[in-house]
Design brief:
Largest sheet: 7 strands, mixed
Helix content: 25-40%
Enzyme class: transferase
CATH class of the largest domain: Alpha Beta
Number of domains: 2
Pathway: Amino-acid degradation; 4-aminobutanoate degradation
Shape: globular
Keywords: Aminotransferase, Pyridoxal phosphate, Transferase
Mean pLDDT: 97
Low-confidence stretches: none
Structural class: alpha/beta
Radius of gyration: 22 Å
Strand order of the largest sheet: 4-12-11-10-7-5-6
GO molecular function, one term: (S)-3-amino-2-methylpropionate transaminase activity
Family: Belongs to the class-III pyridoxal-phosphate-dependent aminotransferase family.
CATH architecture of the largest domain: 3-Layer(aba) Sandwich
């Protein structure tokens, strides 16, 4: 049987096995401890949603390189596209020589990315952090304004500027000073809205908090952009309510502010649409700029920024771009990724996986007092753990225990959330029904094993 069709199987009794442990020991000697890893897993071969370690243990991966393998590990068509391009050339700096792969991919993204405006441009860089930083540069150049607004719970990257944008300062310990002009408002985290508020009242409340930022942080006429994720990733898989997005779009239109949608994690079918902002477009509130990375090129380091041409035309020549932006191998991979996702309707696969798993998660929410909230869109689902439903006290201890327990049984899952008390679903969208069921069984067993952890 091919690895992509296998189920989780631990044959060494405990993980890691001896061969895996030897590699982990070498890692601890050769690599920085600051690049942290708490998983007892070493990847040797991988296919679909599964990977095998050097000892023959098989793991089901519900993290997918943190949202990179939406198409699965080692998709043969993508690998062939990369090989074919590598046989021609591996690098061409777009500032020096034009290569058609860059142009074709830009044309395709201009066609499908749901930003505001009819005539669009796209640029390519290498990572989500770079995409977000470039998007801000572009917004500042167009508006001639110095400041931006971001939100609590945000994660936008680990460069100096995007560390300033990121809400969780555990990602910035020992760093700084950070750039000025980055101001923060409260994200509409409806599960933790003030007691007694309806959802509608809460949306009005968070909208008012945002508008207050123009009084206490940056005057609107100095604000270039408001930046946020359609579904917060590191922040706990918290969706931006569509009525709040409409309100933000109205504010931005009135005040000449750009909306930058960070689709680094939500893009490429994860949300049940090719882009989560398609839901916004249906509601008449497209963003001005969209950033994307992660699953765009199935593991090749690659990212993009798309905006209407008018915005890009405001950028002085030479202030954006870079040596590796639009690498030919990444362009070839991304073109193939989009082709496959459209041909095989990967957004529908995400909706199917999400429906199956959210139904089970909701059963757990009714069954276990430690499951406080289930949320998300498509297959981008979060499940939040608390000490008890009444207090909603965050319970990161049980999340840590569940993750360790699940890994021992062959399921890789990851935490998220401001308090580290949620678990995110980022499984490859090619996961089979049997693998989905196997993962749910392991996950629930790990919950039951750790119900007393507070």
């Amino acid at each position: 049987m091919k690895l992509g069709n296998e189920l989780p199987k631990i044959i060494t009794g405990t993980v890691p096995g001896p061969k895996g442990q030897a590699i982990i020991d070498r890692r601890s000697e050769a690599c920085p401890v600051a690049i942290n890893c708490n998983y007892p897993a070493v990847i040797d071969t991988a296919e679909g949603a599964m990977f095998k370690d050097p000892d023959g243990n098989i793991f089901l991966d519900w993290v997918g390189g943190v949202g990179v393998t939406n198409l699965g590990y080692s998709n043969p068509e993508v690998l062939e596209a990369i090989r074919e391009q590598s046989n021609r050339f591996c690098h061409a700096m777009f500032n020096i020589t034009t290569h058609e792969g860059y142009v074709k991919l830009a044309e395709k993204l201009n066609e499908i990315v749901p930003v505001k405006g009819n005539v669009k441009n796209t640029m390519f860089i290498n990572s989500g952090s770079e995409a977000n930083e470039n998007a801000v540069k572009i917004a500042k150049a167009f508006t001639k304004r110095p400041n931006i607004i971001v939100f609590s719970g945000a994660f936008h990257g680990r460069t100096n500027y995007t560390m300033a944008m990121t809400g969780k300062k555990g990602y910035a310990i020992g760093q700084g000073p950070f750039p000025d002009g980055v101001y923060r408002a409260d994200f509409p985290y409806l599960y933790r809205r003030p007691d007694g508020m309806t959802e509608s009242e809460a949306i009005d409340y968070y909208t008012a908090k945002l508008e207050n930022t123009f009084i206490e942080a940056t005057p609107a006429e100095y604000c270039a952009a408001i930046v946020f994720e359609p579904i917060q990733g590191e922040g706990g898989f918290v969706p931006a309510p569509i009525e709040w997005v409409k309100a933000v779009r109205k504010i931005c239109d009135e005040k000449g502010i750009m909306i930058i949608a960070d689709e680094v994690q939500t893009g490429f079918s994860r949300s049940g649409r090719m882009f989560a902002t398609e839901y916004w477009a249906e509601a008449g509130c497209r963003p001005d700029i969209i950033t994307m990375a992660k699953s765009i090129a199935c593991g090749i380091p690659f990212s993009a920024v798309t905006a209407r041409k008018e915005i890009f035309d405001g950028v002085p020549v030479g202030t954006i771009g870079g040596t590796y932006g639009g690498n030919p191998l990444g362009c070839a991979a991304a073109l193939k990724v989009i082709e496959i996702m459209e041909r095989e309707d990967f957004p529908a696969k995400a909706r199917k996986i999400g429906s199956t798993i959210s139904k089970r998660y909701k059963e757990w929410e009714n069954k276990y007092d430690v499951v406080g909230d289930v949320r998300g869109i498509g297959s981008m689902l979060g499940i939040e753990f608390v000490t008890d439903k009444k207090s909603k006290t965050p319970n990161p201890a049980i999340v840590s225990a569940i993750i360790k327990d699940a890994a021992k049984m062959g399921l890789i899952i990851e935490s998220c959330g401001t308090y580290g008390n949620a678990i995110r679903l980022l499984a490859p969208l090619c996961m089979t029904d049997k693998q989905t069921e196997a993962g749910l069984q392991i996950f629930e067993k790990a919950i039951v094993n750790n119900l007393s952890v507070k």
